[in-house]
Each structure stands twice: as C-alpha cells, then as structure tokens.
Amino acid sequence: MEKQAQKKEMDNKKVVLTGMQPTGKLHLGSLLGALDNWCRMLDSYDCLFFLADQHAITMPHVPAELRRNAMDCVAQYIACGLDPKKCKIFLQSQIIGHAELMWVLSCLTPIGQLERMTQFKDKSKKVGQFVCSGLLFYPILMAADILLYNADLVPVGEDQKQHLEITRDIAQKFNGTYSDMFVLPEPYIGQTGARIMSLQNPTIKMSKSDKNQNGVVYITDTNEIIRKKITGAITDSGNDIAFDEKNKPGISNLLNIFAAIEGISIEEAVRQFSSLTSYVPFKQAVADAVIGKISPMREKYGEIVQDKDYMVEVLRAGREEAQRRANKMISKVYRKVGFVME
Ligand code: TYM
Predict the structure, then answer these.
(1) Cα R_g (the chain), whole angstroms
(2) Which domains does the chain have, with CATH numbers?
(3) Is 7 among the catalytic positions?
C-alpha cells in the first residue's frame, strides 16, 4: 500500500535525470556545478541519478579501474547528499535500453551536427590518431539517457548545455517523424558554480584530466591539501577582491567557489571582502569554506565505501526502477518505429 502511494506521488512530480562519468574522484567543479543542485531537487522532483559508465569507454580506460571507480562514485554520490531514500541511483550499463534507444535516435541524427559538437572536436584532438565512432555518437547516447525516462529537467554544468540542445533537436525530430512521444527536456544550470575553473589555470575548467593536479580539489583531499591548493591558487596582479572574469579570472573563480558554497550571490561575496587590501585573508576564507563543505563528505564517503552490501542494495533498487521505466519506453518507441512487438 505504501509503495502504491509513493508511486502515485511520483507520477505527479516532474522527472529529473542526470549523471556523471565515473572517472573516480568527484572534484569541486562537479560538486558545485552539479551534485549540489541535484541535492536541492530531491524533495520536489522524481529524481533519477546514474553513472555514465557506457560514456566512459569512449576514451581509453583500464577495465578494472572503471569498475572500481563506478562503485567509488556511488559512495561519493551518497556522501555528497544524494539520499537513496529520496531518489534512484543506478549504473547506465546495467539498464537495457540506453544503447537500444541510442540506435533508434542515431537514425534521426545528422552526422554533420555530431561533427560540429565542441566536445567531439576537443576530445578527438586529445586522443590523437584513433578517434572511435563512440566519441562521435556520445551526444546521441546522452540524448537516449535523458529521453528513455522522459526527463523534464536535466541539472548540469555549463559545459553540457550543447548536449542538451542536441537532445531537444533529436526529440523534436522523433516527435515530428513518428508522433509526439518525448518531452523536450530543459537544462537546469545553477546561478553560481556552473563553471568552476582550474586553480592553476583559471581559463580552463576544473577537470580530473588536468595535468596540474594542484588545480583540482577532490572531495577525498585532506584539509591540509585543500588549504594548500586554495591558498596556492594562481591569482591576478593587484590586490582588490573584484569579480572580473576577463581581467581577474583567478579571483573571480575563487569568488564563484565561495558564493556557491555559501549559497550567496557573487555581489554579496564581493561585498563581504570589500574591505580587504590583500589576497591572503581572502584565500584563507575561501579555504575555510571549502574545508567546511568537503570534510564531512570525505568522512561519510570513508564509511559508505566500506559498506559494500549497502551500495549493492542501493544499486539493486535503482536498477529495478530504472529498468521498469526503460522497458516501458523502449516498447513504445519500437512500436512507433514499426518493429514487430508480438
Ligand atoms: P561529467 O562527468 O563531465 O560531469 C558531471 C557534471 O559535472 C559538471 N561539471 C562541472 N560543473 C562546473 N564546473 C566544472 N569544472 C565542472 N566539471 C564538471 C558537468 O557539467 C556535469 O553536469 N556527458 C556528461 C554525463 C552524462 C549526462 C547524461 C549528464 C551522460 N549522460 C545525461 C546529464 C544527462 C559528462 O560527461 O559529465
């Protein structure tokens, strides 16, 4: 009875779906640009969060590491605030439907549009000679992830905006070619934190693949390391704390981090530091804020990651619900495109 009541409530809520590649350790960018916003949605939406392990194999990888990273990321999702009682967490590769829907959608997506995607151009430069077709098809798989669950809202950082645009194009193409089926999903991008930059080079986004690891704060970093990385952040000449992404990208990045953590506007953050005449106390205040945010998460992660049974149970519940929805959607899609369903 309780399950039925829960289902009814879910039926009335908008669907939120989003995910991350299980690259191992979450960093401040993925935390402030993504996960924090996800947590804010838990009470008001029907939330589905997954780990995009099928996306992760578009780049060279070590299989054993991918497997371990996926489980570590599940523990980090929960440690950062995704309460499994309020959402479903699952692994993309455990659901039959993402790749199936991708195939159908690929027959509606022009190659030219895929070749123009910024991420495809950037990543194909990085991998050198062997550019796999999976990298080209990446946005279609992402569209399939979203459309398989008819998500209304997709919380992401700014770098994923183009992927949401192509998802909407593909959904429209399907609806126009067959008949109305997919909701056109809206991106949800936070006011602050949507683009956290490297601490060592504030013109590139904070990313695990950064060659200079001092530019990246991980949620597994100790307090000492966090303080060292933040106080060692590259800042600009001058000594006033002002937000100017073009001329003061380093200070602007730290202000963005501070504002996102404190839940205040950039203007308010600037006001708080307006009387300072040196960067030193400002950096210390940002380090305090980051430590205050991350250290409880790091401790919780340490506990959860030991509890394999708990994680397996969370994933089992997520998989069951996601597969139920995916089966329904794939049947509808197959019927529309003309496959025999008997
Ligand atoms: P991924 O794994 O690169 O990043 C996960 C989320 O974190 C955000 N993010 C950032 N936000 C602000 N500043 C940063 N420095 C920063 N780095 C990462 C990203 O915008 C993202 O929201 N393609 C996706 C995964 C994916 C997905 C999906 C997402 C696959 N299918 C369907 C949403 C819906 C990716 O690689 O994210």
Answers:
(1) 21
(2) 2-193+308-337 (3.40.50.620), 213-302 (1.10.240.10)
(3) no
The alpha carbon of residue 262 and the mean position of all alpha carbons in its chain are separated, in whole angstroms, by 20
Rounded distance from Cα 18 to ligand 1 centre (Å):
8
Which residues line ligand 1 at a C-beta cut-off of 6 Å?
18-21, 29-30, 33-34, 52, 55, 142, 145-146, 154, 156-157, 159-160, 194-196, 205-207
Q: Is 123 a catalytic residue?
A: yes
pLDDT greater at residue 317 or residue 278: 317
DSSP assignments along 132-167, one per residue = -HHHHHHHHHHHHHHHTTT-SEEE--GGGHHHHHHH
Q: Which residue has the tokens 């600037």?
A: 270
**Measured in angstroms, how far is the CA atom of residue 52 from the centroid of ligand 1?**
10
| pLDDT tens readout for residues 17-68 | 999 999 878 999 999 999 999 999 999 999 999 999 999 999 989 999 999 9
Mean pLDDT for the stretch of residues 147-173 = 96
Please name which of 215, 214, 211, 212 lies closest in space to residue 196, comparing C-alpha atoms. Answer: 215
For residue 157, the ligand 1 atom closest to its alpha carbon is 20
**E-state strands within the chain:** 15-20, 46-51, 87-91, 153-155, 186-188
Phi/psi for 19 (5° steps) reads: -160, 180
pTM for the model stands at: 0.93
Which amino acid is it at 114? L
What is the Cα–Cα distance from 13 to 9, expressed in whole angstroms? 7
Residue 10 has pLDDT above 80, yes or no: no
Distance from residue 239's CA to the centre of ligand 1 (Å)? 33
* Region 192-196 average pLDDT: 83
Residues 264-288, buried b or exposed e (16+ Cβ, 10 A)?
eebeebbebbeeeeebeebbebbbb
Q: What is the pLDDT of residue 199?
A: 97
Q: What is the mean pLDDT of the chain?
A: 94
- For ligand 1, atom 7, name the residue with the nearest CA: 30
